Amino acid sequence: MAVALDSAAITHGIQLAVAPVFLLTAVAGMIGAVAGRLARIIDRARVVEERARTQPEFVAQAYKELGQLRMRGRLANGCIALLTFCAFLIGLTIILLFLGETTDFQANRMAVGGFLAGVASFLLALVCFLAETVIATRLLNFPLLREGGAP
Fold this sequence. Notes:
Layout (H helix, E strand, L loop, with lengths): L6 H48 L4 H44 L5 H31 L4 H4 L5
Helix pairs in contact: 1-2, 2-3
């Protein structure tokens, strides 16, 4: 595997490798957002468990809510795992593009496959995120609205 020392080839390799970096930025932002949601899910579960221990009349409702929180937590974890896998694949794509441009190593097909797999992983993570938010909005419970109270 010979290394090209031509500055034009290296510059072009860097340009090719920079494009997927924008996807990495989006993935990092998504991981931060989903991690924040997961933290809130965990905090809420702790509050519900403590309330169920101190208020026996709340136990049945607590079991229902804790089940939904567990599902939301699993979806958030799955989303983070898919986003992490996406970031790994996009990073691998960047390496392959750069190596393909600066050496004799033919990695174009592997780079395309890695990129497409990364995008597919990102899309699956978005599906998990959507499912988690749908479940979260089902948990919205406004007793005042149920009772018909109006300002």
